[in-house]
């Protein structure tokens, strides 16, 4: 009887046991379905539809440009300050949308999670790809503006753009897994995330430039500030989009605004992002056994 039972269970796995993010890769078709569904219904019933992907960041840019560029005079001390500002804003918007929606993705899909088993990581990951879909039109607008101002990047600057997107995606995914799994049982996580997102724009050189931070902080604080993966990613976007539009393209001039070791801090930022991804996945796997009953 025991032998027969062993034969019947051979090759089977315990229900609900998976391989984390690897299962998302193995079930890419489900990921495509989730992304397609959310993208299609996001602007359903909207007159402007996809144009909202352009209107919202443009409105945000105008407000900040007038407040920071005109009233505070930052555009007078920096060539093409509008590109510097907008390149940082679109990246911050990408992170905020991914992190915020990814945190709520499990609770928002509670009905589906309670009915069937599927890799629960699908929901935060799909939030990331949806944010990426909304992010790309903004990058297109930024690219068109940069081309108008004589954008002429080299290979390292193009690499910097891709590396910045990778840093933000990995970091936001790790944080979404971490806070999303906690949010299932403790809805206070959403309030914590809202507070984090409130400070995100101000903790990176978007509405101000890097030299202002360097001249008003100690070397230790400035070093710690640059270890922030979002700061590293924003500096990479400045290096990739803003720097190639400068009339003075000397390394000294560019380094004075993006830092002399932009690639070095990018490596640090990517490493820290992967640490958060590992922590987020471990916490997610630890808590997911209770998702169905807590939801």
Automatic annotation (TrEMBL):
<dbReference type="GO" id="GO:0015920">
    <property type="term" value="P:lipopolysaccharide transport"/>
</dbReference>
<keyword id="KW-1133">Transmembrane helix</keyword>
<dbReference type="GO" id="GO:0140359">
    <property type="term" value="F:ABC-type transporter activity"/>
</dbReference>
<keyword id="KW-0472">Membrane</keyword>
<protein>
    <recommendedName>
        <fullName>Transport permease protein</fullName>
    </recommendedName>
</protein>
<dbReference type="InterPro" id="IPR013525">
    <property type="entry name" value="ABC2_TM"/>
</dbReference>
<keyword id="KW-1003">Cell membrane</keyword>
<dbReference type="InterPro" id="IPR047817">
    <property type="entry name" value="ABC2_TM_bact-type"/>
</dbReference>
<dbReference type="GO" id="GO:0005886">
    <property type="term" value="C:plasma membrane"/>
</dbReference>
<feature type="transmembrane region" description="Helical">
    <location>
        <begin position="222"/>
        <end position="242"/>
    </location>
</feature>
<feature type="domain" description="ABC transmembrane type-2">
    <location>
        <begin position="48"/>
        <end position="287"/>
    </location>
</feature>
<feature type="transmembrane region" description="Helical">
    <location>
        <begin position="158"/>
        <end position="179"/>
    </location>
</feature>
<comment type="similarity">
    <text>Belongs to the ABC-2 integral membrane protein family.</text>
</comment>
<keyword id="KW-0997">Cell inner membrane</keyword>
<feature type="transmembrane region" description="Helical">
    <location>
        <begin position="50"/>
        <end position="74"/>
    </location>
</feature>
<feature type="transmembrane region" description="Helical">
    <location>
        <begin position="262"/>
        <end position="284"/>
    </location>
</feature>
<keyword id="KW-0813">Transport</keyword>
<dbReference type="Pfam" id="PF01061">
    <property type="entry name" value="ABC2_membrane"/>
</dbReference>
<feature type="transmembrane region" description="Helical">
    <location>
        <begin position="129"/>
        <end position="151"/>
    </location>
</feature>
<feature type="transmembrane region" description="Helical">
    <location>
        <begin position="191"/>
        <end position="210"/>
    </location>
</feature>
<feature type="transmembrane region" description="Helical">
    <location>
        <begin position="81"/>
        <end position="99"/>
    </location>
</feature>
<keyword id="KW-0812">Transmembrane</keyword>
């Amino acid at each position: 009887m025991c032998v027969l039972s062993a034969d019947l269970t051979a090759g089977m796995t315990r229900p609900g046991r998976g391989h984390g993010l690897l299962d998302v890769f193995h079930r890419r078709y489900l990921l495509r379905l989730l992304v397609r569904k959310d993208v299609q219904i996001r602007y359903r019933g909207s007159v402007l539809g996809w144009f909202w992907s352009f209107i919202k960041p443009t409105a945000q840019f105008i407000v900040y440009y007038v407040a920071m560029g005109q009233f505070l005079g930052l555009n007078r001390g920096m060539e093409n300050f509008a590109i510097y500002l907008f390149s940082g804003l679109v990246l911050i918007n990408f992170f905020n949308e991914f992190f915020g929606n990814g945190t709520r993705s499990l609770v928002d899909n509670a009905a589906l999670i309670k009915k069937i088993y599927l890799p629960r990581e699908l929901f935060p990951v799909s939030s990331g790809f949806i944010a990426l879909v909304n992010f790309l039109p903004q990058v297109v607008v930024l690219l068109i503006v940069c081309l108008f101002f004589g954008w002429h990047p080299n290979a390292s600057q193009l690499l910097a753009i891709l590396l910045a997107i990778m840093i933000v995606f990995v970091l936001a995914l790790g944080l979404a897994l971490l806070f999303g799994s906690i949010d299932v049982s403790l809805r206070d996580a959403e309030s914590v995330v809202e507070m984090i997102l409130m400070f995100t724009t101000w903790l990176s050189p978007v509405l101000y430039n890097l030299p202002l931070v360097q001249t008003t902080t100690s070397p230790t604080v400035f070093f710690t500030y640059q270890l922030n993966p979002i700061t590293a990613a924003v500096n990479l976007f400045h290096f990739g989009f803003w720097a190639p539009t400068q009339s003075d393209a000397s390394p000294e001039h560019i380094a004075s605004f993006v830092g002399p070791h932009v690639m070095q801090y990018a490596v640090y930022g990517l490493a820290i992002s992967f640490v958060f991804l590992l922590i987020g996945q471990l916490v997610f796997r630890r808590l997911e056994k209770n998702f169905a009953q807590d939801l």
